[in-house]
Amino acid sequence: MSEAPASSALGDVRPWRASRIIQYVLLQALLSALCVLGLMQSLPAPPAEYRLTAFRLTEGGSERAVTLPQFTAPRYAIEESPRFAAQFVRPAAEARRLWSVFLPRFTNGVEVSVNGVVIHDSRRDPAANRPDRNTPQIADIPAPLLRDGVNDLSIRLFVWGPIPGFLDRVWVGPDEVLRPYYDRRTLLFVTLPVVFSAWQAILAVILGIMWLMRRHEPAYGVLAAAMATGFFQALLQTPMIETPFSRLSAVVIASAPLEGALVLTFTLLLAGWKWQRWWLVLFVPSLLLTLGGLIGGQPAARALFPFVGLPMVGLSLLIVAFVSGRSALREHNVASFLLGCAVTIMLTCWIVDLLSVFQIVNNRIFTGRLSYSAILVAIGAGLTWRFARALNQVDGFAGRLVAQVREAEEKLKESFAREEERARAAALARERARLMRDLHDGLGGQLVSIVALSERGNAAAGIGEAARAALKDLRLVIDSMDDIGGDLMLALGSWRERATAQLRPHGIALDWQIASTQGLPVHPELRPWHVIQIVRILDEALTNAVKHAQATRITVRIETVPGAEGPAHGCITVADDGRGFELAADGGGTAGSKTARGLRNMQNRAARCGAELGLSSGAAGTQVKLVLPHRFPDSDTATS
Amino acid sequence: MNASTSETPAQATTILLVEDDAPTSWRLQDALSNAGYQVRAAGTLGEARAALAESAPKVLLTDLQLPDGHGVELIRETRARFPDTEIMVISILGDEESVISAITVGATGYLLKDAFPTDIAATVRDLVAGHSPISASIARFIVRRTQSTAEPPPGPPLNTTKLTPREIDILWGIAKGFSYAEIAGHLGLSRQTVPGHIKSIYRKLEVHTRGEAVFEAVQQGLIKL
Q1: Residue B156: how many CB atoms within 10 A of its CB?
Q2: How do residues A252-292 score in pLDDT, each as one tens digit?
Q3: Which of A53, A417, A533, B89 would staple A605 via disulfide (CB 3.0–4.6 Å)?
Q4: Distance between CA atoms of residues A320 and A340, nearest Å
Q5: Beta strand A509-514 with A553-561: parallel, antiparallel or unpaired?
Q6: Is the omega angle on the peptide bond into residue A392 within 30 degrees of 0, that is, cis?
Q7: Going from the N-terminus, what domains does chain B have, and what CATH number goes with each?
Q8: Residue A537 and residue A520: Cα distance in Å, rounded?
Q9: Which of B114, B137, B182 shows the shortest C-beta gap to A479?
Q10: What's the average model confidence in pLDDT over A202-207?
Q11: Shortest alpha-carbon distance between residue B171 and chain A (Å)
């Protein structure tokens, strides 16, 4: 079997690769040889003086002398079961000791009679009626049955297939001599498989849970299925009579090809192959066997097994050996390498078993199943170990990740603080720039004007006016810096105070009308520089009314105008009852270049806030209408 | 509001004016004297204390930045010794920083340094009559302090817990530029009671003693016991 990977891979392979293959094959051959050597070691046997080998075999009505071990046909009707008869001598000196009959190996069942009295039937022992187990039997001979001297021993061998019947040598002697040998075999061929079965069941549960939690790793699930199948297969006993469950039992007992297919699938997955739908072909033999067993019952399952089950098991083993060998060589996959070695051992045992079945080897100790269980358990343990190690790695990784995340968090916090600081500094710089501009626009000009007036020496009233205007502007700038939460009404409240104070000496009345209950809509996006522009527009309108219109009453009307579509917007109207002025074609006034400049300024400021400024003037007075936008612009985009 | 001060007999009203800038002091003295008030002027904290030692004025007008100390000290002392004296702070800008800090130690009004002479006299007369002046920006500052915020807002500390909802409504009206008549109309009050409410608001914002200051600090969670 070990030649398979070598022959297929040799063709296209470089020399170093060929040498690796040869090494691998030699290693497998050595393992195989060691295995055969081990299997050739016969188990310790009781003293030869109690051994019986010469029997008379009654089979199909004829009687002949045979020497045990003896093979028979693969199948007999119960009533036609062959009978082996012999005589043994129980010395009179041994009368006080308990004597037993020890049958180390038989297939499939035995009924032991001493002096014509049946003392034992192995078919009642669930472990003993399975042809694939090497279950020994020991039968105590009741003392009254035994005679001093020659006694008769008769063994009926029940054979129900699928393999030929077999009866190993028989020992009759003192129980205390024979029992240790029986116990040793029981330990090896009964207890150990049970231990393996239990182990398999536990691993099936663990691997099944792993697979449930990690669906993307089907290898665990497949192996769990293989283990579960093995466990149930070992649990059941061969049904002696036909019942509804007996068919199911037969199917389960004949599930070896299913296990083979599962283990093969697992190997392919372990070697890194992706599941392909055509792999279902692997399960066809087991399906055939299952159908046969369910329809035809136990005999059909038995009849099919040698033709379907055995080749499938062998084929599976061969492919597993090939695949794992290839994977071990190509990908240096340690798991595949170990699996390859294990399969070599298993395959060797299986071949030896086959030789025994075909009576080429004069022995019937089956080791294939035992080696399979042992190896499956080893694989399961290995996988569990790998899983635990992966968990440890994950823990370590998680630990590193936590540390890294903390580190990154610290860095982020630092950079965020830096960024915040920078943003704050930038905002401060912007605010300072705005403040400088506002102060320059208002206060600066007024102070320069004060300087100019004071140098003329004779215009004290002018100085006072300019200084007052400067102070007013200073208050405006300071006031505009306050956060008013987007409520322009709060800014207008302060403006009303200043306007009232400004108008009082001129004897002009300020009529303050708030047309809608809430006044103006709240604009969360309102910034100090918007406020300052709006208030300066109103100031300019007021100043024009005082200086040029000779008004007696100024009306400020504040209202919220519902929008045709979309949200409502604010509107502030400053109207006087003065004499008005003529508007030029470009919208500027003609009343004087200073007024014209003032009007242009108002237009500019309105544009910067996204507001519309409407001017109308006539004999009845001047009206400045400021329509506020739905939303104030974020940045000062308009050129000023 | 073009008040004719001669209508009101103001001879009995004595005013102590504490202002270190001489031209400003002259200007205020002129405006008040012309209205018939009896004005004594002091340029420093020391002079002011000396003047107070002689007799209690009906009205104290004081600047905050004085050469030998802070006007707040003077306001506190005067408030403690002469509870009947009306106190006003003289401010250049009428900004909340100076006005509020004066109110918390006992001032009940403020006067702008550049106000027109008639307005100066009218403001003092109103104050004596029990009507405290308040600006929209001061009202705005106070009502904003009544709104609970996570972080203490910038500016001088202020305890607004004693203000009634009605008083807060009045402050809102002032902050939004409504006249006293309009506020009275909205709130269903008599127009004459509004200035009195404002004086009451000022009185409630005052921190009287050290013990009270501690109590209020605890109330506001500034001090944890």
Answers
A1: 15
A2: 777 888 888 898 898 888 878 888 888 888 888 888 888 88
A3: A533
A4: 7
A5: parallel
A6: no
A7: 5-128 (3.40.50.2300), 136-219 (1.10.10)
A8: 17
A9: B137
A10: 88
A11: 11
